[in-house]
Amino acid sequence: MPRYIAFLRALNVGGHTVKMEDLRGLFGALGFERVETFIASGNVIFETRAGGDAALERKIEAHLQQALGYEVKTFVRSDAEVAAIAAYQPFKPALMKQAVALNVAFLAAALDAGQAHKLQSRFRTGIDEFHAHGRELYWLCRKKQSDSDFSNAVLERALKLRATFRGINTVHKLAAKYPPG
User: Check: CATH 3.30.230 for 85-177?
Assistant: First the structure.
C-alpha cells in the first residue's frame, strides 16, 4: 500500500498543542493505516490507497480543522518524493560548506516565475540563499537563522502562499526511516 508523509504547519506552536497519540488517532479516523508520527513537529506517516497529494491534503486539512478548531495547512509527499528531496543537491558543495542551516519549505505548488524572481531579488542576501525545485524551496542560511530577516511568515506574506519548513536533517531521517518500498 502506498506510504505518504504529511508535513503539518502550525502544529504545536503558537499555543496550539496536540499530543502525538491524538494526532495519530485523527489520521486513523480518516481510514489511514499504519499511522506514525515522527518528532512532535507535525510529521505524520501513513498508508492509504486513496492517492493524489492535493486530494489527501484537502481531506486532512478539513478533518483537522473540524477536530482541532483551527487551520492546519498540510503538505503531503510520497515516501519516494521524500527520498528524492533528501537526495537532491540544491547548492554547490562550496556553498554548502558555508551553511549553518539548510531548510526545506514544502509548498502546495511550484513557485511561478514571478514568485521565484521576487524571492531571489528581495530575500537573497549575504546570509540567505534560495533554490526552488518542484514543490520545494531550499533555504541555506550562512548564520544562525535568528540573524536572518527571512522566515516562514515572511515567505508566506511576500509570495502569498502557504509553506512549512523542516530542517534537512529531519528530511534525511525521514527518508532513511521510511524508504520507498
Answer: no
